[in-house]
Amino acid sequence: MTDASLRHVILDTDTGIDDALALLYLAGRPDVEISAITSVYGNTTVDSALINIARVLEVAGLDDTLVARGAAGPIDGEPRIAAHVHGADGLGDLWSEPIAPKNMSSLSSAELLVELGRSRPGYYDLLPVGPLTNLGIALEIEPNLLTLFRSVVIMGGSGPFPPLGVVQMVDANIHNDAIAAARVFASPRRELVMVGVNVTAGTIVDEQAVQALHRAGTKWGTFSAQVLEAYMDFYQVAWGRRVSPAHDGLAAALLVQPEWITKSERGPVNITTDGFATRAHLMRTANGLPVSWETTPAPDTHVVLDVDREAFLADFVRVLSGAPGRI
């Protein structure tokens, strides 16, 4: 494989269940090198996020990966920790003994993002799948941060405004830090892709997929199935079935396989609030018209509207079942 076809990925994560699976999926892709992992609060505390990073790296056999400790809360206000979704420890409370990453950076997550970006402009792909606080802080240090990455693919946002009468899933990543999110979507960039809940919420890992992971009989498959079962404990009350959205796994896959994006639009993204949820929206209605108020100017973001779910889910389950040569 040539270096041009290899993605050198920096994962910025609040390591809950879907984050852990996204990390394991990237670890199993032969066209990906995980260059560094920066932690942040969100699905769990930042300290638990670090423990969970170490646990996934142990499963993947990538213990020497560089890891940094990031923000423990948003730029302003208190963190909203999603323990009711991911468990108190962020991974379904399945383990009793904590472990620590073996290769901790002396830099904070924000500082490491800046250092890596400046060291090799256009070399790394950045994948933030948690609250955008680390990026918001890093942009204070380096306002052109996003231009230093080959691409930035965010799991977050809500796409355009939904059709009349349709309510979207709350996007915790944007909701947790509106200030940081506003900085990110207003910043100059090479390529910024938004993979929002408008597409991830309908990308479902179902009961059959979890059974396939159990049947794989591998360390990877067993880990993936166990944490997915815990995730489904929460999501079953939403749909009456033991299923869950792929969320971060889909964003990871689209970074590597952008051809799985089947519909998208480019335009400015602004941060909005209705007093209940804070969201990142493409400033378009569901039928493509401008919104009814004056928007804040911003560079174009590549907003994903639909994906090849069948291709993604087949690959996702295949890789999580056990990557040959890496187990």
Count of DSSP strands:
13
CATH class assignment: Alpha Beta
Class by helix and strand content? alpha/beta
Tell me the CATH topology.
Answer: Inosine-uridine Nucleoside N-ribohydrolase, Chain A
Label the overall shape.
globular
Instruction: Give the C-alpha Rg.
Output: 18 Å
Low-pLDDT runs: none
Strand content: 15-25%
Please state the second-level CATH architecture: Alpha-Beta Complex
Estimated helix fraction? 25-40%
Strand order of the largest sheet: 4-3-2-1-5-6-7-13-10
Which secondary structure elements does this structure contain, and how are they paired or packed?
Layout lengths: L6 E7 L3 H12 L3 E8 L6 H15 L5 E4 L13 H4 L17 E5 H11 L4 E5 L4 H9 L9 E5 L16 H5 L1 H9 L5 E4 L1 H4 L3 E2 L1 H10 L2 H21 L4 E2 L2 H9 L4 E7 L1 E5 L4 E5 L18 E7 L1 H13 L6
Helix pairs in contact: 1-2, 1-10, 1-11, 4-5, 5-7, 9-10, 9-12
